[in-house]
Design goal:
- By secondary structure, this protein is α+β, with helices and mostly antiparallel strands.
- The protein folds into two domains: about 45 residues, no CATH class; about 130 residues, no CATH class.
- It has eight helices and five strands, in the order βββαββααααααα.
Length: about 200
């Protein structure tokens, strides 16, 4: 999906796949195209916001496909995050790890837990702050080594990368849970989470 301004006319154009639609008022677009466009936009918005909780109170999805559109391509299968299990079952099984409620995962721009959230509250997508898709590129890792950063300085830089931030949060918590209960369903290896074929 692309939005651009055409030539010197200033007409804004929205492209979705092979469909090109002018977006100025008064343009005529047939109903089939309009329905398709709205469906595509809603699907894209839902996918883009993967990792967020819908705004309507109590409307928390069971599973969130972590298929973020900011990635040009995914190098591993898409994670199907069991969100409802993290909001319902796991806090009952492992209360010590969910004492911050939704804030066990959701945090502010300083990394502080958002303890006042309840299921259904509107939250930012992870990529809103951890805005670089993927993991730290090799050249950036080289820069980090050259600068002899402290572990915390390195972590701050790494967390600018979306996949690094998610892995740090998820695997970090899962390791703590597994340390307390070796039988806990808290995967820490790649293919235990990246199980579905990437599309």
């Amino acid at each position: 999906m692309t939005l651009f301004t055409a030539g010197t006319t200033g007409v804004r154009i929205l492209t979705i796949g092979s469909i090109v639609l002018p977006t100025e008022k008064g343009d005529v677009v047939d109903m089939k195209t309009t329905c398709w466009m709205l469906t595509a936009m809603l699907t894209a918005a839902t996918t883009l916001l993967a990792g967020t909780v819908p705004a309507s109170a109590g409307d928390v999805p069971d599973i969130i496909a972590m298929d973020n559109l900011d990635y040009e391509e995914h190098t591993k299968p898409i994670v199907e995050f069991p969100h409802r299990r993290h909001t319902d079952a796991f806090p009952q099984q492992y209360p010590d790890f969910f004492s911050a409620g939704c804030g066990a995962c959701h945090h502010d721009d300083e990394g502080e837990a958002l303890t006042d959230l309840v299921p259904g509250d509107d939250v930012n997508a992870c990529i809103d702050c951890h805005s670089e898709p993927g993991t730290v590129p090799r050249d950036v890792k080289k820069q980090m080594r050259a600068q002899k950063l402290s572990r915390e300085e390195k972590k701050i830089w790494e967390r600018e990368y979306h996949a690094e931030a998610l892995h740090d949060l998820c695997r970090g918590c899962h390791r703590k849970v597994r340390k307390a209960d070796r039988s806990a369903p808290a995967p820490t290896s790649c293919m235990k989470c990246h199980t579905k074929d990437a599309s």
